[in-house]
What does this fold into?
Amino acid sequence: MTPAAYLRLRRAAAGLSHEDAAAALAPRIADRSLAATLLRLWETDGVIGEAEDIARLSHVYPLDIFVYRQLCEEPADRHPRICTGCGCSANDACVRNLSANCHWIADDLCSACSESVTVSPAAWMRHAINRTTGEGLRA
Ligand SMILES: [Zn+2]
Ligand SMILES: [Zn+2]
It folds into this structure.
């Protein structure tokens, strides 16, 4: 997963459009287009944000700075496990209720997403194939 894809997933999982996130980042309407430009830049594959800037973005929607940095700096085989439906990880699991967080139901899909219609079609279909055939996931 690219750092940009991670940010796209986390923003969408928070239920925020680009405009919503820009509004949260820039309270003054005059600054909104600047905020929108910045958000789109960070969500462009190949672009890497500075840690201090992404830390500020984490006040707009939940994301994990450590996960982001690993995606930026580490080779793919050392990337953290991330849900392809919502971008959650062991560092910032989905909070389902007061007593339980999400858990992994496949290599790249968390339990919250498996129960949700917002899961990406590809992630759901891979999981459905595994459920149907009874085989462990590894596409
Ligand atoms: Zn998920
Ligand atoms: Zn989750």
